[in-house]
Amino acid sequence: MKPIPPMVVEIRLGLCAECVHLAPDPCAACAHGKWDAYVRCEPDLPPLATMAGNLAQAAFDETLARLSGTPQISETDINKRLSICSACERFRPSDQRCSICGCFLDFKTRLRSQDCPLGKWRD
Asked: 112: which of 12, 69, 80, 92 lies 20 to 30 Å off by Cα?
């Protein structure tokens, strides 16, 4: 991520000198509400190899679940899962992905064999 231009840091400090420790951070917002974050910062995704492994495991698990007759996820449960994900600090709104597993949540929430890597989907 690119650093904040020095002029923006100066403006931030002029608006709130108490937040001197936050002014250079592009993701930070003033603790007193006088300025917002310079950019929207999102958590990084896991390495590509990890995401590929997660995808392969999910495909295998979903195939087993289908063959064993595990019922499909209801639309209500899919929406509940999506709601939980969108409120999570590890959710990436820009691409609708989980930064823990790297999955596209619109797809993962529909898979009967999958669970939240943080355990948040468990009842």
From this structure: 92
pLDDT digits (tens, 9 = 90+) for 82-117: 999 999 989 998 899 999 999 999 999 999 999 999
Number of domains the chain contains: 2
Contact 28, 8 (CB under 8 A): no
Count the residues in the chain. Answer: 123
Q: What is the pLDDT of residues 2-56, one digit of tens each?
A: 678 888 889 988 998 898 888 888 888 888 889 887 777 888 899 999 999 999 9
Together in a domain, 33 and 63: no
Task: Report pTM.
Answer: 0.70
CA angle 78, 83, 88 (to 5 degrees): 125
CB 76 within 8 A of CB 63: no
Q: Which domain holds residue 87?
A: 48-108
